């Protein structure tokens, strides 16, 4: 099972960053759950949510927590947000941190078969490859 | 220290037309040179768009990047290849570093920026984007904004291998006009500390029209209708650069760079045909007609070496325990490779004279050799001959190109012009290499240069 952790975002825009990071993780085939104030309430409050973080992350699910009341259990990575960053860029920085920690490998980048052929033909036409 | 840095990249812009005795009249570039400094910029090995721009902007050599050309071996299988797009660039480039320093960046058309990755600013990817249906901008909404502001973004010249030169010339100009229109829009509407664009049309023009303009090209004919298209294009680019320069003030340092130069191409060396003739490569095909090497039935049990074509050759050895059906014993590897270097470098041309080939071992070129590198990187005839990968030729040389007309090959040096507003007074600089650009940009912006950058800061 792939390793995971809880990312706890601190600062303005934490909900949007958590959402952007979750989408990027899911795009790469990883499981991710966002923990907002609403979900914390449904889990019975901060204590229940904190325990859910442990259960999810030890089962390979990244938890993206933007509720500062929660003190997650299990492996936690705290991220202080730069208010000047866009949510997508802040999410990118968070994912790079996961890569550095060996928790994530970015697999986005492969072309589809049609795109690969289109690019191959373009490069061949341009003389770069034969 | 500059408040902002503008980098104008011109793929393949070649020193002889900007600095040389036969230079074109380019008033805007000349002004930058007069006020700042200028010189030749040594390219990387190989001097090709990919990996050159990534090497320039990461200050890592291609071996460290593990990128040896557009198409790279994925593993040691015979057919596992991948295209080196942005996902292949694992090292941080200047805009990544600046983004993390809180600087606002604009990146436009730089090769190997597709698939896009978020930056602290705006990014429009280069020509490895498959089409504009793909997500080619960051943020995604920028694509629609550009459509509304300047029309559809042109990724590259369509139908490049055509004999209709008038139409092709028009499309190359369209590419350039579109790229600068996007640049003007971004410059006018976005706040930025670092702005970088790359214009690809210069490269396309050289390959398509060199023979019409260079009296040294074997097929040059004086008075032909395209005799001045290179000069006219350079001047059009210069005028567009002037429009960008009008938009920046004295607080902005301006850098104009190219990734490599260009020179007249004489013909092609049919490298796999030559390997067959040398007894190093065996195919089970009827070679009475031309055939792509990828389509050949290679007898790997009787093959020691094969190669990929392009503007240079990547030669691979078939090593036991490394390739699936390798036959070269590992202990014989260096001896076989040395023998191949000797054979390649002693090759004579169709006229019987030495061809002046160079065969480089990656380990001799790079700080590190990552990924699956070619065993040899080969330049034929001092890059005046390209590498033809297909087989079925009567000799190892051809004056035709099996992918269509092509007149120019890449040369080892591009251009470097810097006006950092410090009053350098037109000084010529020497000894610069692509990897010096990234640390120089960071220094201009007062940002610490990472210790692992391999280039030097130009001050």
Structural class determined from secondary elements of chain A: alpha/beta
Give the total of beta strands of chain A: 4
The N- and C-terminal alpha carbons of chain B lie at a distance of 11 Å
In round numbers, the mean pLDDT of chain B is 95
Shape of chain A: elongated
Number of strands of chain B: 21
Unreliable residue stretches of chain B: none
Query: Which spans of chain A of ≥5 residues are poorly predicted at pLDDT below 50?
Result: none
Indicate the topology.
The complex is a heterodimer of chains A (130) and B (459).
Chain A: E1 6-10, H1 14-27, E2 31-35, H2 37-42, H3 46-58, E3 61-65, E4 76-80, H4 87-100, H5 113-125
Chain B: E1 4-10, H1 15-18, H2 27-35, E2 37-42, H3 49-58, H4 62-65, E3 71-73, E4 81-83, H5 94-100, E5 105-110, E6 121-125, E7 137-138, H6 141-150, H7 165-189, E8 194-199, H8 201-213, H9 229-245, E9 252-257, E10 261-264, E11 267-270, H10 271-277, E12 305-308, E13 313-317, H11 333-345, E14 358-360, H12 362-365, E15 376-379, E16 385-388, E17 397-398, E18 408-411, E19 413-419, E20 427-428, E21 432-433, H13 437-444
Parallel strand pairs in B: 1-8, 1-9, 2-20, 2-21, 5-6, 5-8, 11-16
Antiparallel strand pairs in B: 2-19, 3-4, 6-7, 9-19, 10-18, 11-17, 12-13, 13-15, 14-15
Helix pairs in contact in B: 7-8, 7-9, 8-9
